[in-house]
């Protein structure tokens, strides 16, 4: 093993040890893993308690089980918050997600960050720090955050359907979302009522719904309203 690899391993060991010592003081769940090849290296005591895992079981957890039990960025209820940050070389350096986690009869909101903890180099393993932090907000903010998460989740589940719409379909959908009648839509877009109704019929076919409220959800989730 090269001195460079030894240095990197020593740096990783130091970071893990630091998290072992400080993890209980830092809010949320902390996880360190190697992504290529896959290996779970560390989970804090809050994480072991939350997911009812021993450290040994966690370290041998395969990637598909990790995604099922702990964190899957592709889950419909886990949504990326905008583009990820980039380092000086333009490589993604940190990603933030918001997740709705349904627990029994309540829904918990979580903020999840995924951050490389050692520089990427060709031929050298990639390591990430995952932090899962419950969002405990003031009462006025919680409904707003929950609504945003619902819209992001709806957008993620229905993106393929939505992108089938033409630009004119989207204009009509936007006005449907504002509760405009066919006559009003026609006047605003300078088209006839029959043309408006044809667009409405096509929109419902492509989105596979006859539910007006669901059409409004599309308008909200895809920023048409």
From TrEMBL:
Residues 158-223 form the HTH luxR-type domain. InterPro entries: Sig_transdc_resp-reg_C-effctor, Tscrpt_reg_LuxR_C, WH-like_DNA-bd_sf. Pfam families: GerE (PF00196). It comes from the Bacteria. SUPFAM superfamilies: C-terminal effector domain of the bipartite response regulators. This is Helix-turn-helix transcriptional regulator. The lineage of its organism: Bacteria, Pseudomonadati, Bacteroidota, Cytophagia, Cytophagales.
